[in-house]
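Retry 2 of 3 after timeout on previous attempt. Resubmitting structure tokens to design endpoint.
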């Protein structure tokens, strides 16, 4: 990779200009060779070159050679007037060898404005509001996260037996080419406010944003009649919008006691604006309706969040005494019951699945508190939470364990005749009544005490004796406790429970 950067800065009275120009070129080549053999006597003179002496039935040879190239031109200008008005404008032209021959390059402009309102002559002077800045930005950026030859028809090789029983090598097209493959682009707007109150004892930022991502890079499945399984292509448009708030404060500032806090709040909403730029005509309640084409297989629907949960809506558990009604659906007491939307006594996905929630948090929160007391003691706590989303907890329908003498790994009050729960079904579920099986989703919200640290700073009289610039002893706990209704291993990852980590240490500098 080679970067050539030219910078220029000049002041003309109250005007300050700062310009940067960039020219970039890059190339990355990788070569890999894998050879494997068995049933041969190693020879220290030949080394791996003796692999051909192995059993032909177990020899494996795999080679790969890839190269990718990219280039970019960029120009950026910053302008400032009296530390009150700020302007930034830039343009970047990028090229990448992995895209189709018709669209290897794209242009990404951007601009930003800033106004330091608190520096205006009309702004009231005082300690209540001592800093106020308004910001606005607009820009485009690109995504090139694809394989090095995603736009090309790659050749595969294999062997087949002829009529004479001879193995014959053959080369064939393994992927479908797409000369129109192009950059995924995101256009974003951002409006921000920076503020400081009470001589900056309270300061923070508020950000509003909206971003539209078009021409998403996806590996789209193809019908079998095409002769290919998938193709790399650009489809659709997704919109993200939200708010982020960050506030820091000094709550108490006394000689023997200090308390400061910081809180971060974020909220994001997304929507699939378009998928295939195509429509379909369907009959609903006897009327023909034209609507955008959705991707049912992946659970993507135009007008919905990209993380929306499309699933049967569980309404409870079949109980004893409801055998006859459950039998209409091929179910039994202890099985989960769901809403039969069209009332045909069957659970089919197109007729009965509904939008029942989201898999990513609807909002996030972080809270930090720092205390200093008795001059040399410090206590720091950090809480973090994610709220408003659901997770797949299929352990409620199909317990997973590798221990043959234990069918249940989770401490869950499953339904039994003696425990007629309407929230938890029986240990082994009969989900054959559902066309595509049944996934159980539960609230995955949580608030975690993530970090707690108590430290003691050695006083200066001790530091002078031991010749240290600073020194402290500390004890800390990570993942102290999690408040959640989630019954799985961990509400954040669900792959494994997070360990609770205790640390004891001593820090010093000379």
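Retry 2 succeeded. Sequence:
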């Amino acid at each position: 990779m080679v970067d050539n950067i030219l910078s220029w800065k000049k002041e003309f009275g109250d005007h300050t200009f700062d310009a940067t120009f960039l020219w970039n070129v890059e190339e990355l080549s990788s070569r890999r060779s894998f050879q494997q053999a068995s049933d041969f006597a190693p020879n220290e003179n030949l080394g791996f070159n003796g692999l051909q002496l192995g059993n032909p039935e177990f020899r494996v040879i795999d080679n790969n050679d890839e190269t990718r190239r990219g280039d970019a031109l960029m120009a950026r200008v910053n302008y400032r007037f009296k530390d009150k008005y700020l302007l930034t404008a830039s343009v970047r032209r990028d090229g990448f060898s992995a895209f189709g021959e018709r669209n290897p390059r794209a242009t990404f402009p951007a601009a930003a404005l800033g106004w330091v309102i608190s520096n205006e002559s009309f702004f009231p002077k005082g300690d209540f509001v001592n800093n106020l800045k308004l910001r606005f930005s607009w820009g485009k950026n690109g995504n090139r996260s694809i394989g090095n030859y995603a736009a090309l028809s790659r050749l595969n090789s294999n062997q087949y037996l002829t009529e004479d029983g001879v193995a014959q090598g053959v080369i064939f097209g393994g992927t479908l080419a797409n000369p129109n493959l192009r950059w995924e682009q995101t256009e974003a707007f951002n409006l921000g406010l920076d503020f400081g109150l009470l001589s900056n004892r309270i300061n923070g930022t508020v950000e509003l944003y909206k971003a539209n991502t078009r021409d998403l890079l996806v590996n789209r499945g193809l019908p079998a009649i095409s002769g290919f399984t998938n193709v790399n292509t650009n489809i659709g448009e997704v919109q993200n919008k939200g708010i982020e708030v960050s506030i820091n404060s000094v709550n108490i500032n006394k000689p023997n006691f200090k308390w400061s806090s910081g809180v971060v709040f974020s909220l994001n909403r997304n929507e699939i604006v378009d998928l295939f730029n195509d429509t379909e005509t369907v009959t609903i309640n006897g009327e023909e309706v034209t609507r955008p084409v959705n991707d049912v297989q992946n659970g993507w629907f135009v007008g919905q969040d990209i993380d929306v949960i499309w699933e049967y809506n569980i309404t409870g558990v079949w109980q004893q005494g409801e055998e006859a009604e459950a039998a209409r659906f091929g179910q039994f007491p202890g099985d989960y019951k769901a809403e039969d939307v069209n009332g045909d006594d069957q659970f089919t996905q197109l007729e009965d699945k509904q939008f029942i929630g989201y898999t990513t948090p609807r909002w996030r929160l972080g809270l930090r508190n720092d205390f200093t007391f008795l001059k040399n003691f410090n206590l720091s706590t950090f809480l973090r939470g994610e709220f408003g989303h659901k997770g797949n907890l299929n352990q409620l329908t199909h317990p997973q364990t590798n221990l043959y003498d234990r069918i249940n790994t989770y401490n869950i009050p499953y339904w039994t005749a003696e425990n007629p729960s309407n929230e938890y079904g029986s240990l082994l579920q009969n989900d054959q009544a559902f066309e595509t099986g049944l996934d159980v989703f539960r609230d995955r919200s949580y608030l975690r005490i993530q970090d707690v640290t108590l430290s003691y700073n050695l006083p200066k009289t001790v530091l002078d004796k031991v010749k240290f610039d600073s020194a402290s002893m500390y004890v800390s706990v990570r993942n102290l406790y999690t408040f959640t209704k989630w019954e799985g291993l961990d509400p954040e990852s669900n792959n494994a429970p997070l360990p609770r980590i205790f640390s004891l240490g001593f820090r010093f500098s000379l």
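Attempt log closed. The two ends are 40 Å apart (CA to CA).
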